[in-house]
């Protein structure tokens, strides 16, 4: 069954994939001497953002690309799981191609839905996929192993897995009475909130805080954590050993037993090494 709706014609998406990304504001800011770690010879990593809602995390990333804080990132595609997703308006305002790929268009066939997503990523020549409030199963194929990041609104392994997303996470945090929660950005595999952790940021839970208040505090940390993780990936500064990720300092080389993840904007192949994708299980991003 065909997707629900495509915001831009397929030919437009394909043409965008063929063109080198030109984030002019990013280049002009990052070229300044004050932008530590900017490498003018490194092309930006072509990035897709998958969303299901209003797109606050998408806006956060767009702002940081525009002002130069994410020097090596070019957001070239937004995929939404429903036509009413507010993130689509933000994509349109930024001139970014977008597509609506709803699981309802593939009833009873999650594999076909995931395949349609992967095909859209392929057409756009994507090197990095960011799940930013994506609330549906996506079976990651081998060619995207080590190239998919998710942001989850808790400190994994607490309050994660099946059924823990959005407000459900923060309500559980308050009900359980924990004193510290936070957010996690991790590399994805095909299990619930399971892949290697890149960044975590804590949030204190004061007595009497409501789930909405916890959610607001956690999102402020998500903005920092997601940008830091995406930036480190794009700069090729993630070193992976087993399931342990180390963020390398600028100019630091990985240890012999570590594999670099990210950095190289390779289309149609693996971007980095060290990740394997397990057999798919139903997974909901946070």
TrEMBL record:
GO-annotated biological processes: 'de novo' IMP biosynthetic process
Pathways involved: Purine metabolism; IMP biosynthesis via de novo pathway; N(2)-formyl-N(1)-(5-phospho-D-ribosyl)glycinamide from N(1)-(5-phospho-D-ribosyl)glycinamide (10-formyl THF route): step 1/1
Domain Formyl transferase N-terminal: 46-230
Classification via Pfam families: Formyl_trans_N (PF00551)
EC category name: transferase
Matching Gene3D superfamilies: Formyl transferase, N-terminal domain
Listed GO MF terms: phosphoribosylglycinamide formyltransferase activity
InterPro entries: Formyl_transf_N, Formyl_transf_N_sf
Name assigned to this protein: phosphoribosylglycinamide formyltransferase 1
GO cellular component terms, A-Z: cytoplasm
EC number: 2.1.2.2
Organism: Porphyra umbilicalis (Purple laver)
Superkingdom field: Eukaryota
Keywords: Purine biosynthesis, Transferase
